[in-house]
Amino acid sequence: MNDHGPIATIIIPTLNEERSIGALIDEIFSTNPTLLVIVVDDNSSDHTGRVVAERAEQYPGRVTFFSRTSAEKRGITASVLDASHQVTTEYFVVMDGDLQHPPEAIPEMIDKLKQGADVVAGYRLPYEEKQAAHRVLATRVSTALAKAALLLRGVKVRDPMSGFFAANTKKFCENVSSSPERFEPEGYKVLFDFLKIVGTSVKISEVPYNFRIRLGGKSKLSAKHGWLFLRSLMK
Ligand SMILES: Nc1nc2c(ncn2[C@@H]2O[C@H](COP(=O)(O)OP(=O)(O)OP(=O)(O)O)[C@@H](O)[C@H]2O)c(=O)[nH]1
Ligand SMILES: [Mg+2]
Question: Given the CA of residue 75, which atom of ligand 1 is nearest to it?
């Protein structure tokens, strides 16, 4: 964390994203070539690891492939928490590996952190016409529940279910260490779990972004994740 080193690390959880991860890393470095990237992978059976290794050669010292081969619990939240402990920069950003989150929003997120925010919650601009009706309904219901749960704790954010967010590394890791049991390791909603824990004790900013449709690879979202989210509301 020195003054002249990289300012932020981009954490990307992946499961079989060979079709998009290379282009995503290229896009990230086109916004800022001094960032670091950690791809945290849960045993992809495709060539995600090989594509990331190629990018690691192309951007020496900037790209790490972190394979959770012996991890006890698989899942996005467990992966992001593991990766956050490896971050050496003052800030980090979490984004999906399927190109649905636009890297062009990263500079604004980092600016907000530099201005003193502890966490920057991305929020999706209207995108519903791009999605199937059942996904729109599931997102609306879960977002309404999450917002209500956070409002009870005094926290008001537009899109607590967003997978695209940024944080001050020290603040994030301290809060995770104080209540690890309140995260749902196999769940999808790290930001929600974090906000639930910190309540009004941290400074939150928000940044809008244009959510993109998934162009390649497959969604890993399943009914199980709905259940895990309901469980995390109770934690
Ligand atoms: N490390 C890790 N990454 C995962 C896991 N499941 C999904 N991912 C990755 O997490 C990101 C989000 O997963 P998606 O399946 O795209 O979830 P989603 O964006 O809510 O769903 P879609 O809109 O249908 O794409 C992607 O980069 C996935 O590859 C997992 O169990 N472990
Ligand atoms: Mg996705």
Answer: 31
